[in-house]
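Re: that backbone. Tokens:
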């Protein structure tokens, strides 16, 4: 498996309209609405069960934020807030964060196809703030069903 440890961060600074400080895509016009990516850990756990691989590390999916117990797909088109204890970061959920072929190398063969429809969402950063590894509070105006965290979203799932 390719080494990913250098990609992990304990703390990220987010800038409104810019993205994650130090990210290679930060500030680029093409990524204006895709500055932060958010994934439900349950997506990767469900994928592991389907592929029969044993546990897979959801942090290897190369998403900025990995949440547990959050119906991430319901946040598309919605403003929401994450508070990791260093202030609130406001985000607006956007288009799906479609998986790439790299998922087959870093997670498991079949992960690219298996994550379709549940690989998370791309978000615009609406405020400056800090995201850090550890517990966070998610606040949203839409009701989120923890039981649906990681479920394949029918509007984004590709035909198999």
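Recovered sequence:
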């Amino acid at each position: 498996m390719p080494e990913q440890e250098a990609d992990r961060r304990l703390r990220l600074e987010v800038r409104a309209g810019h993205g994650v400080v130090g990210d290679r895509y930060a500030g680029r016009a093409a990524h204006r609405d895709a500055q932060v990516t958010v994934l439900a850990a349950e997506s990767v756990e469900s994928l592991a069960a389907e592929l029969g691989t044993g546990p897979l590390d959801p942090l290897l999916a190369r998403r900025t934020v990995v949440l547990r117990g959050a119906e991430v797909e319901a946040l598309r088109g919605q403003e929401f807030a994450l508070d990791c204890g260093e202030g609130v970061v406001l985000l607006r959920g956007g288009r799906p964060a479609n998986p790439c072929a790299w998922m087959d190398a870093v997670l498991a063969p079949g992960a690219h196809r298996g994550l379709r429809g549940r690989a998370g969402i791309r978000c615009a950063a609406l405020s400056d703030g800090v995201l850090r590894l550890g517990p966070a509070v998610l606040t949203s105006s839409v009701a989120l069903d923890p039981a649906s965290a990681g479920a394949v979203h029918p509007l984004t799932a590709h035909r198999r």
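The chain has one domain: 23-141. The CA atoms of residues 47 and 75 lie 21 Å apart.
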